[in-house]
Write a structure and sequence with these properties.
This protein is an alpha+beta fold and about 150 residues long. The chain is built from 3 helices and 8 strands, in the order αββαβαβββββ. The strands form 2 sheets. The chain has a 5-stranded antiparallel beta sheet with strand order 7-6-5-4-8. It has a 3-stranded mixed beta sheet with strand order 1-2-3. β6 and β7 form a beta hairpin. α1 packs across α2.
């Protein structure tokens, strides 16, 4: 990804008091699609208004700098209800929630409840629990993939 593009998007998102979760570039060379995912530092849900504000700000800067050309598509949204868990702060923020975790330390992929995270930066350990109450302590560095699990209420 173009570092200048990421820097522009990050600056505009942060200027609005929000955080850049992810940015992906897809589509075709003649019509690139920029998928920007944002979140709130206070943990509250992203609103349509948040997305619109970010879209307007980012679009103005991209048009001014002509980094992606004239015919691009900009999509701004939240990471979603089944958002990926990537950083220690994600694990701390979603303590008590269920995550689909893939790690060799648990023998593959399992749905586990996040009970907490401890340790120094770079050597964090996750405290997890399965549906039967069995506890797991695994290093954050050993997680290959993880996302929140959304449960539909009936």
């Amino acid at each position: 990804m173009n570092q200048a593009l990421e820097d522009i998007v990050r600056q505009e998102v942060e200027a609005l008091g929000l955080e850049l979760f992810d940015i992906k570039v897809g589509g075709a060379r003649s019509r690139p699609v920029l998928d920007v995912r944002i979140e709130r530092p206070d943990g509250e849900a992203i609103t349509v208004d948040d997305c619109a504000r970010v879209s307007r700000a980012v679009e103005a800067r991209l048009d001014e700098r002509a980094i992606v050309g004239e015919k691009y598509v900009l999509e701004v949204s939240s990471p979603g209800v089944e958002r990926p868990l990537r950083h220690a702060r994600d694990w701390a923020r979603f303590a008590g929630e269920t995550a689909a975790v893939t790690s060799d330390d648990i023998g593959g992929s399992r749905d586990l409840v996040i009970r907490g995270i401890e340790g120094e930066a770079g050597s964090e350990v996750l405290n997890l629990e399965d549906a039967k109450g069995a506890a797991f302590r695994i290093p954050l560095a050993g997680v290959k993939k993880a996302r929140l699990v959304f449960h539909w209420k009936r």
